[in-house]
Amino acid sequence: RFFMYMLLFFVMFDKVSAGHSFDAFRLIQFDRNGKQFGSRRTRVNHVAAPAGISQTDDVLMMGDHIIHEKDESRDNVDAKPVDSSMKHQRGKSGDLHRKIVIVHMSSLNEDVLNSFIDDRNAAVVLIVLPADLSSVAQDTLDKWRIFEEYLLSRQFQIPVYFAFSDNKLEGIIDSLESSTMDNKTKSPDRYQVVGSRSDSSVVSSLSITNIHGWIHGATPEDADIENPPTVALVANYDTFAAAPGMATGADHNGSGTIAILEIARIFKGLYSEFRTQGEYSLLFILTGAGRMNYRGTKLWLRKADNRILEALSFVLCIENIAKSHKLFLHLSTTPDGQEVQDTVQIFENTAKQK
Known about the structure:
Layout: E1 5-13, E2 17-26, E3 29-32, E4 35-39, E5 45-49, E6 53-55, E7 59-62, E8 65-68, E9 79-81, E10 99-104, H1 110-119, E11 124-129, H2 138-151, E12 155-156, E13 160-164, H3 167-181, E14 191-195, E15 211-215, E16 230-236, H4 250-271, E17 281-287, H5 295-303, H6 306-311, E18 312-317, H7 338-352
């Protein structure tokens, strides 16, 4: 429901001043059933901090997690909670109060993010995404999508932003991390992160647009002319995500939308000739706000004429059909009526064919 673009400026202040600007995207905020979700704070004007990996005598620590020195991989962190007796060793290096922590998406999970916010008091979190998400392994993307669902399931009291990686941003991150890890550094490079906007704009209401079209069948002599038996094919056509570029819109549900349009094209040709015109009328529906608990579908059902709903013999919702070569058929209820049972059997027989 809420989304805002921001421009962040990095300014290094030591002996030399320099700057780097790039686009950042705030974690979406929305209300659902009277509850607030996402990140509602926007203001950014803080000193940058790395992910907070600090070194003690024989271990590396990220916040309240111990990372064994032998595991230097940022993508596969072997972490466990820090014993309470060791937390005092973290000192100021682990405190993120009034700082914006910059962390790669590959280093994040629920525990690490909660440690930044709840335990280490970060003022802002900036999550850095790969510049090219298509180069990320599928199993990693699947993990990130699970993490994305978590981001959409709670409210954050601090600003949470996303940015795509570039060479200058990676150089700044490396500088911050090396300054943190090098105990001999007396005056590490410091960077001030300043947001170009300070306020979010409220979307007063959600505009939902639904699209539907008909192809009329050859009504049998004993059928109700005003309420011909109808088969409906439904898909939601839009999507949104916690972060830019992470929306799975091509599959969820661009694939369903394309399928609806292609089926409509095929049957328009078939129904244009009497000899290939079926008895059932076909209703094609594309609904909006699919990721908001299918609000577009609910709106369509609420406004639909009762005669249309009573005429529906079968409804097929098409979604996520491009994810793999396997197709799954989910039934809301046990098939009732011989024709519906026959239709389900056709799906099952077709699925068994290679």
